[in-house]
Specification:
The complex is a heterodimer of chains A (192) and B (108). With 192 residues, chain A is α+β, with helices and mostly antiparallel strands. Chain A has five helices and ten strands; from the N terminus they run E-E-E-E-E-E-H-H-E-H-E-H-E-E-H. The chains are: A alpha+beta (192), B mainly beta (108). At the A-B interface, strand 1, strand 2, strand 3 and helix 1 of A face strand 1, strand 8 and strand 9 of B.
Chain lengths: 192, 108
Protein backbone atom coordinates (compact mmCIF):
# COMPACT_ATOMS: atom_id res chain seq x y z
CA UNK A 1 0.00 0.00 0.00
CA UNK A 2 1.13 3.49 -0.65
CA UNK A 3 0.75 5.78 2.26
CA UNK A 4 1.43 9.36 2.92
CA UNK A 5 1.51 11.29 6.10
CA UNK A 6 -0.55 14.31 6.79
CA UNK A 7 0.40 17.44 8.55
CA UNK A 8 -1.40 20.57 9.51
CA UNK A 9 -1.30 23.94 7.88
CA UNK A 10 -2.84 26.99 9.37
CA UNK A 11 -3.76 30.33 8.05
CA UNK A 12 -5.50 33.09 9.86
CA UNK A 13 -7.09 36.35 9.07
CA UNK A 14 -6.69 39.16 11.51
CA UNK A 15 -5.77 38.04 14.86
CA UNK A 16 -4.08 34.85 14.93
CA UNK A 17 -4.83 33.16 18.00
CA UNK A 18 -3.90 30.00 17.68
CA UNK A 19 -1.98 27.33 17.11
CA UNK A 20 -2.25 23.93 16.70
CA UNK A 21 -1.43 20.84 15.73
CA UNK A 22 -0.42 17.67 14.79
CA UNK A 23 -1.95 15.13 12.91
CA UNK A 24 -2.24 11.61 12.96
CA UNK A 25 -3.18 9.77 10.06
CA UNK A 26 -2.95 9.34 6.62
CA UNK A 27 -4.12 8.41 3.36
CA UNK A 28 -3.76 6.81 0.14
CA UNK A 29 -5.69 7.14 -2.91
CA UNK A 30 -5.80 3.87 -4.59
CA UNK A 31 -8.77 1.73 -3.98
CA UNK A 32 -7.75 -1.24 -6.02
CA UNK A 33 -6.76 -4.34 -4.13
CA UNK A 34 -3.04 -4.18 -3.67
CA UNK A 35 -0.81 -6.86 -5.11
CA UNK A 36 0.57 -9.55 -2.86
CA UNK A 37 3.65 -8.57 -0.94
CA UNK A 38 5.47 -11.60 -2.21
CA UNK A 39 4.70 -14.64 -4.22
CA UNK A 40 4.31 -16.96 -1.27
CA UNK A 41 3.04 -14.36 1.14
CA UNK A 42 4.09 -13.55 4.66
CA UNK A 43 2.81 -15.23 7.81
CA UNK A 44 -0.47 -13.78 9.00
CA UNK A 45 -0.30 -12.49 12.58
CA UNK A 46 -2.43 -14.56 14.93
CA UNK A 47 -5.76 -13.16 16.05
CA UNK A 48 -5.81 -12.50 19.78
CA UNK A 49 -9.17 -10.80 20.21
CA UNK A 50 -11.23 -12.03 23.14
CA UNK A 51 -14.69 -10.72 22.31
CA UNK A 52 -16.45 -12.32 19.35
CA UNK A 53 -19.86 -12.33 17.75
CA UNK A 54 -21.27 -15.01 15.45
CA UNK A 55 -18.74 -17.44 16.91
CA UNK A 56 -18.99 -19.91 19.75
CA UNK A 57 -15.52 -19.07 20.94
CA UNK A 58 -12.60 -16.85 19.93
CA UNK A 59 -11.28 -17.84 16.53
CA UNK A 60 -7.60 -18.39 15.95
CA UNK A 61 -5.93 -18.59 12.55
CA UNK A 62 -3.92 -21.58 13.71
CA UNK A 63 -7.20 -23.48 13.92
CA UNK A 64 -8.24 -22.40 10.44
CA UNK A 65 -5.34 -23.94 8.53
CA UNK A 66 -6.66 -25.52 5.37
CA UNK A 67 -9.23 -22.80 4.92
CA UNK A 68 -8.96 -19.50 3.09
CA UNK A 69 -9.57 -16.57 5.44
CA UNK A 70 -10.70 -13.10 4.43
CA UNK A 71 -10.26 -10.48 7.13
CA UNK A 72 -12.41 -7.38 6.78
CA UNK A 73 -11.35 -4.44 8.94
CA UNK A 74 -14.41 -2.27 9.38
CA UNK A 75 -16.54 -0.26 11.76
CA UNK A 76 -20.30 0.21 11.66
CA UNK A 77 -20.03 4.01 11.62
CA UNK A 78 -18.17 3.92 8.30
CA UNK A 79 -20.42 4.23 5.25
CA UNK A 80 -17.72 2.92 2.94
CA UNK A 81 -17.60 -0.17 5.13
CA UNK A 82 -21.32 -0.84 5.38
CA UNK A 83 -21.82 -0.37 1.65
CA UNK A 84 -19.25 -3.11 1.08
CA UNK A 85 -20.96 -5.56 3.41
CA UNK A 86 -23.41 -6.93 0.79
CA UNK A 87 -20.42 -8.10 -1.25
CA UNK A 88 -18.93 -9.87 1.75
CA UNK A 89 -22.25 -11.48 2.59
CA UNK A 90 -22.38 -12.73 -0.99
CA UNK A 91 -18.89 -14.24 -0.74
CA UNK A 92 -19.83 -15.86 2.55
CA UNK A 93 -22.92 -17.48 1.08
CA UNK A 94 -21.11 -18.61 -2.03
CA UNK A 95 -17.84 -19.87 -0.62
CA UNK A 96 -18.22 -20.77 3.07
CA UNK A 97 -18.98 -24.41 2.33
CA UNK A 98 -16.12 -24.49 -0.15
CA UNK A 99 -13.56 -23.43 2.43
CA UNK A 100 -13.74 -19.65 2.90
CA UNK A 101 -13.99 -18.09 6.35
CA UNK A 102 -14.76 -14.40 6.44
CA UNK A 103 -13.90 -12.65 9.68
CA UNK A 104 -14.93 -9.09 10.46
CA UNK A 105 -12.41 -7.22 12.56
CA UNK A 106 -14.49 -4.46 14.05
CA UNK A 107 -12.10 -1.62 14.87
CA UNK A 108 -13.45 1.63 16.32
CA UNK A 109 -12.26 4.97 15.00
CA UNK A 110 -13.01 7.08 18.08
CA UNK A 111 -12.66 6.57 21.85
CA UNK A 112 -15.41 4.71 23.73
CA UNK A 113 -17.65 7.78 24.18
CA UNK A 114 -18.65 7.44 20.53
CA UNK A 115 -20.36 4.08 21.09
CA UNK A 116 -18.31 2.03 18.63
CA UNK A 117 -16.81 -0.06 21.43
CA UNK A 118 -20.21 -1.13 22.71
CA UNK A 119 -20.98 -4.77 22.02
CA UNK A 120 -24.73 -4.16 21.92
CA UNK A 121 -24.29 -1.57 19.20
CA UNK A 122 -22.22 -4.02 17.19
CA UNK A 123 -24.83 -6.75 17.65
CA UNK A 124 -27.47 -4.40 16.24
CA UNK A 125 -25.23 -3.49 13.33
CA UNK A 126 -24.63 -7.14 12.44
CA UNK A 127 -28.35 -7.84 12.48
CA UNK A 128 -29.10 -4.75 10.45
CA UNK A 129 -26.48 -5.65 7.87
CA UNK A 130 -27.38 -9.34 7.71
CA UNK A 131 -23.88 -10.37 8.71
CA UNK A 132 -23.67 -14.04 9.70
CA UNK A 133 -19.91 -14.47 9.58
CA UNK A 134 -17.77 -14.14 12.73
CA UNK A 135 -16.75 -10.74 13.99
CA UNK A 136 -14.10 -9.84 16.53
CA UNK A 137 -14.23 -6.71 18.61
CA UNK A 138 -10.85 -5.08 18.12
CA UNK A 139 -11.45 -2.30 20.61
CA UNK A 140 -7.80 -1.99 21.57
CA UNK A 141 -6.74 -2.07 17.91
CA UNK A 142 -4.38 -4.91 18.58
CA UNK A 143 -5.22 -6.75 15.38
CA UNK A 144 -5.45 -3.52 13.38
CA UNK A 145 -1.92 -2.66 14.47
CA UNK A 146 -0.59 -6.17 13.99
CA UNK A 147 -1.63 -6.03 10.34
CA UNK A 148 -0.54 -2.42 9.85
CA UNK A 149 -3.99 -1.32 8.74
CA UNK A 150 -4.70 2.36 8.09
CA UNK A 151 -8.06 2.67 6.39
CA UNK A 152 -11.65 1.60 6.73
CA UNK A 153 -12.51 -0.72 5.09
CA UNK A 154 -9.42 -2.87 4.54
CA UNK A 155 -9.04 -6.48 3.53
CA UNK A 156 -6.48 -9.22 4.07
CA UNK A 157 -6.80 -12.50 2.21
CA UNK A 158 -4.99 -15.40 3.86
CA UNK A 159 -4.20 -18.67 2.13
CA UNK A 160 -4.70 -22.19 3.42
CA UNK A 161 -1.23 -22.26 4.94
CA UNK A 162 -1.77 -19.13 6.99
CA UNK A 163 0.14 -16.80 4.71
CA UNK A 164 -1.04 -13.34 3.71
CA UNK A 165 -1.59 -13.51 -0.02
CA UNK A 166 -3.49 -10.33 -0.86
CA UNK A 167 -4.22 -7.06 0.87
CA UNK A 168 -6.25 -4.04 -0.16
CA UNK A 169 -8.71 -1.45 0.92
CA UNK A 170 -11.63 0.61 -0.27
CA UNK A 171 -15.36 0.26 -0.77
CA UNK A 172 -16.63 -2.00 -3.51
CA UNK A 173 -20.00 -3.25 -4.66
CA UNK A 174 -21.62 -6.38 -5.96
CA UNK A 175 -20.28 -7.24 -9.39
CA UNK A 176 -18.10 -4.18 -9.86
CA UNK A 177 -14.47 -4.53 -10.92
CA UNK A 178 -13.05 -4.81 -7.41
CA UNK A 179 -15.72 -7.32 -6.44
CA UNK A 180 -14.76 -9.51 -9.38
CA UNK A 181 -11.06 -9.18 -8.59
CA UNK A 182 -11.51 -10.25 -4.97
CA UNK A 183 -13.78 -13.03 -6.17
CA UNK A 184 -11.10 -14.23 -8.55
CA UNK A 185 -8.51 -14.22 -5.79
CA UNK A 186 -10.74 -16.10 -3.39
CA UNK A 187 -11.37 -18.77 -6.01
CA UNK A 188 -7.66 -18.95 -6.80
CA UNK A 189 -6.75 -19.62 -3.18
CA UNK A 190 -9.59 -22.05 -2.68
CA UNK A 191 -8.28 -24.06 -5.64
CA UNK A 192 -4.74 -24.35 -4.29
CA UNK B 1 -15.24 40.55 19.31
CA UNK B 2 -12.36 39.01 17.71
CA UNK B 3 -13.09 37.68 14.43
CA UNK B 4 -10.93 34.88 13.56
CA UNK B 5 -10.86 32.91 10.53
CA UNK B 6 -8.49 30.43 11.74
CA UNK B 7 -8.23 27.64 9.41
CA UNK B 8 -6.87 24.52 10.66
CA UNK B 9 -6.18 22.48 7.71
CA UNK B 10 -5.13 18.97 7.50
CA UNK B 11 -3.15 18.42 4.41
CA UNK B 12 -0.59 16.10 3.11
CA UNK B 13 3.04 16.88 3.59
CA UNK B 14 4.66 14.27 1.51
CA UNK B 15 6.47 15.05 -1.69
CA UNK B 16 3.46 16.68 -3.19
CA UNK B 17 0.93 19.00 -1.74
CA UNK B 18 -2.65 17.94 -1.39
CA UNK B 19 -5.77 19.95 -0.81
CA UNK B 20 -6.77 20.54 2.80
CA UNK B 21 -9.30 18.15 4.19
CA UNK B 22 -11.10 20.11 6.87
CA UNK B 23 -11.06 23.59 8.34
CA UNK B 24 -12.08 24.49 11.87
CA UNK B 25 -13.60 27.95 12.03
CA UNK B 26 -13.76 29.34 15.55
CA UNK B 27 -17.12 30.82 16.37
CA UNK B 28 -19.12 30.70 18.31
CA UNK B 29 -20.26 28.26 17.26
CA UNK B 30 -17.23 26.31 16.18
CA UNK B 31 -17.74 25.22 12.61
CA UNK B 32 -16.12 22.37 10.78
CA UNK B 33 -15.84 22.89 7.06
CA UNK B 34 -14.82 20.16 4.66
CA UNK B 35 -12.83 20.81 1.52
CA UNK B 36 -14.45 20.12 -1.82
CA UNK B 37 -14.82 16.40 -2.36
CA UNK B 38 -14.25 15.60 1.30
CA UNK B 39 -17.20 14.20 3.22
CA UNK B 40 -17.41 14.38 6.98
CA UNK B 41 -18.79 11.21 8.52
CA UNK B 42 -22.16 11.97 10.11
CA UNK B 43 -22.47 8.54 11.73
CA UNK B 44 -19.45 9.36 13.81
CA UNK B 45 -19.93 12.95 14.82
CA UNK B 46 -16.68 14.92 15.02
CA UNK B 47 -15.46 15.40 18.56
CA UNK B 48 -13.45 18.07 20.29
CA UNK B 49 -11.87 16.69 23.44
CA UNK B 50 -11.11 19.70 25.59
CA UNK B 51 -8.29 19.79 28.08
CA UNK B 52 -10.81 19.98 30.92
CA UNK B 53 -11.96 16.51 29.83
CA UNK B 54 -15.27 17.58 28.40
CA UNK B 55 -16.09 16.41 24.90
CA UNK B 56 -17.93 18.58 22.41
CA UNK B 57 -19.62 16.83 19.51
CA UNK B 58 -20.24 18.56 16.21
CA UNK B 59 -23.59 18.06 14.58
CA UNK B 60 -25.89 19.31 11.87
CA UNK B 61 -29.48 18.39 11.03
CA UNK B 62 -28.56 18.31 7.37
CA UNK B 63 -27.18 14.97 6.25
CA UNK B 64 -27.06 13.08 2.99
CA UNK B 65 -30.06 10.84 2.15
CA UNK B 66 -28.24 7.76 3.41
CA UNK B 67 -27.36 9.64 6.63
CA UNK B 68 -23.71 8.77 6.14
CA UNK B 69 -22.31 12.28 5.69
CA UNK B 70 -23.05 15.84 6.70
CA UNK B 71 -24.67 17.92 3.99
CA UNK B 72 -23.88 21.14 5.86
CA UNK B 73 -20.97 22.12 8.06
CA UNK B 74 -21.48 20.63 11.52
CA UNK B 75 -21.16 22.99 14.46
CA UNK B 76 -20.50 22.78 18.17
CA UNK B 77 -21.12 25.35 20.86
CA UNK B 78 -17.98 26.01 22.87
CA UNK B 79 -18.34 26.70 26.54
CA UNK B 80 -16.37 28.99 28.76
CA UNK B 81 -13.12 27.61 29.91
CA UNK B 82 -10.84 25.31 28.04
CA UNK B 83 -9.73 26.62 24.70
CA UNK B 84 -7.53 23.84 23.61
CA UNK B 85 -7.91 20.17 23.04
CA UNK B 86 -7.92 17.41 20.46
CA UNK B 87 -10.17 17.43 17.43
CA UNK B 88 -11.21 14.09 15.99
CA UNK B 89 -12.84 13.90 12.60
CA UNK B 90 -13.71 10.92 10.44
CA UNK B 91 -13.46 11.95 6.83
CA UNK B 92 -14.27 10.00 3.72
CA UNK B 93 -12.87 11.65 0.59
CA UNK B 94 -15.24 10.81 -2.22
CA UNK B 95 -12.57 9.66 -4.63
CA UNK B 96 -10.86 7.27 -2.25
CA UNK B 97 -13.64 4.91 -1.14
CA UNK B 98 -12.23 4.80 2.36
CA UNK B 99 -12.68 6.54 5.67
CA UNK B 100 -9.80 7.78 7.70
CA UNK B 101 -9.48 9.41 11.09
CA UNK B 102 -7.91 12.78 11.68
CA UNK B 103 -6.62 13.60 15.14
CA UNK B 104 -5.48 17.17 15.49
CA UNK B 105 -4.30 19.18 18.49
CA UNK B 106 -6.02 22.55 18.48
CA UNK B 107 -6.12 25.70 20.58
CA UNK B 108 -7.73 29.07 20.03
Amino acid sequence: MRTRREGVVMTASRTVLLVAGLVAVSAAAIRRPAPPSSAGGTPAPELTNASWLNADRPLRLSELRGRVVLLNFWVFTCGNCTRTVPSLVAYDRQYRERGLTIIGIHTPEFPPYAGEHDKGNLVRALLQQGIAYPNAQDNDRRTWDAYGIRYWPSFVLIGKRGMIRYTGYGEFHLNDGDFREWDRRIRQLLAE
Amino acid sequence: MRRIALLLLATATACQSHPPLVALQPGPPLRLVAASGVRINARLKPALELDDRTVLRFDSPLVTPDSAYFAAAPTAAPHEGARRGTLRVSVCPSGEAICRSLEIAVAW
